[in-house]
């Protein structure tokens, strides 16, 4: 006997959530009752209103789409209730969900979260894992409760963080693994075959939203810390240094432990064809890809041709 489909409301906004929605559309066990995403926002150089990546996918598949400024308003809740969804799947939606929203679903709501909970609850788990130098991270499926990212964990997928991992590559790997959690563990949960494991509250860390001020490179910090910042901010806002009062964004760097502690942080200590290296409080940061103000990303080699540097030059500190 064929199992009946589960009627689910999907909530998500950015590219990270697209893989999850597509996997659920393709899964014969789910019926998508509707899709809730953030309202169209200004984007691109002309700042024209653009639909979210999730909205674009939903419309291509003829799904009913909702774009409320707040999903928790009474009139929005009434409209969503009328869809008759049994459960909700939330992936990087971008709004806090009220208890009144959660109460709409007799079989609860789940959330795909880009970390190994209870580590990195909150808004920027991928970035914070990289900026902290974590050597392993992953993605979890959790039951949504009122407290932020505190629900029981239904499953996880783990990945190693290598020297080559940055926020873009991590994002692309985890979005696929997150979709797999909705394909496997979510259905097991809905069928009553899986019970979530409570999180260890003593191990909680928080992934605060990235503030623009954090993106500035402080050469008075260790090179390893700056390398982690550069790769953690690769999806935005991009780490930047300042040279002659002008910001330059850093896209790719390498950290080296062998620096001269007598050299002032921010001093250029090596220049070769493919890169240049700058002294930090500990070690040195080798710059491989850079982006001057109002220019496209370029190799350090191309940058040096238009913006010559010599040993002893200084970045602003």
Describe this structure in words.
By secondary structure, this protein is α/β, with parallel strands linked by helices. It folds into 2 domains: 6-207, Formyl transferase, N-terminal domain (Rossmann fold, 3-Layer(aba) Sandwich); 212-306, Methionyl-tRNA Fmet Formyltransferase, Chain A, domain 2, CATH 3.10.25. Helices cover 25% and strands 27% of the residues. The protein has helices at 15-26, 53-60, 74-81, 99-102, 125-131, 167-183, 185-190, 223-232, 300-306, and strands at residues 6-12, 30-36, 41-43, 48-50, 65-66, 87-91, 109-113, 121-122, 136-143, 153-160, 206-207, 240-243, 246-256, 268-271, 276-279, 284-292, 298-299. Strands 5-2-1-6-7-9-10 form a 7-stranded mixed beta sheet. Strands 12, 13, 14, 15, 16 and 17 form a 6-stranded antiparallel beta sheet that branches. Strand 12 and strand 13 form a beta hairpin. The longest helix is centred in the middle third of the chain and has 17 residues, at 167-183. The chain is elongated and about 70 Å long. The mean pLDDT is 96.
């Amino acid at each position: 006997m064929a199992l009946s489909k589960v009627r689910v409301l999907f909530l998500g906004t950015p590219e990270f959530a697209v893989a999850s929605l597509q996997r659920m559309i393709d899964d014969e066990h789910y019926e998508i009752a509707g899709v809730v995403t953030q309202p169209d926002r200004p984007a691109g150089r002309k700042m024209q209103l653009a639909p979210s990546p999730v909205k674009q996918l939903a419309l291509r598949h003829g799904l009913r789409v909702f774009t409320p400024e707040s999903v928790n308003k009474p009139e929005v809740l009434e409209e969503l209730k009328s869809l008759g969804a049994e459960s909700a799947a939330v992936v990087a939606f971008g709004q806090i969900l009220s208890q009144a929203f959660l109460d709409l679903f007799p079989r609860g709501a789940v959330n795909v979260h880009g970390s190994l909970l209870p580590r990195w609850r909150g808004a920027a788990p991928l970035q914070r894992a990289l900026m902290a130098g974590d050597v392993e991270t992953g993605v979890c499926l959790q039951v949504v409760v009122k407290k932020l990212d505190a629900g029981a964990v239904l499953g996880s997928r783990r990945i190693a963080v290598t020297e080559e991992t940055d926020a873009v590559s991590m994002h692309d790997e985890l979005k696929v693994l997150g979709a797999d959690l909705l394909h496997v563990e979510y259905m097991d949960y809905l069928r009553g075959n899986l019970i979530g494991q409570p999180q260890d509250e003593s191990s909680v860390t928080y992934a605060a939203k990235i503030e623009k001020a954090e993106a500035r490179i402080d050469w008075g910090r260790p090179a390893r810390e700056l390398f982690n910042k550069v790769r953690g901010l690769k999806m935005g806002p991009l780490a930047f240094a300042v040279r002659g009062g002008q910001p330059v964004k850093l896209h790719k760097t390498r950290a080296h432990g062998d620096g001269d502690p007598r050299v002032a942080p921010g001093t250029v200590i090596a220049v070769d064809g493919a890169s240049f290296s700058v002294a930090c409080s500990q070690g040195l940061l080798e710059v491989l890809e850079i982006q001057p103000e109002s220019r496209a990303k370029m190799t350090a080699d191309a940058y040096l041709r238009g913006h010559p540097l010599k040993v002893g030059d200084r970045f602003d500190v």
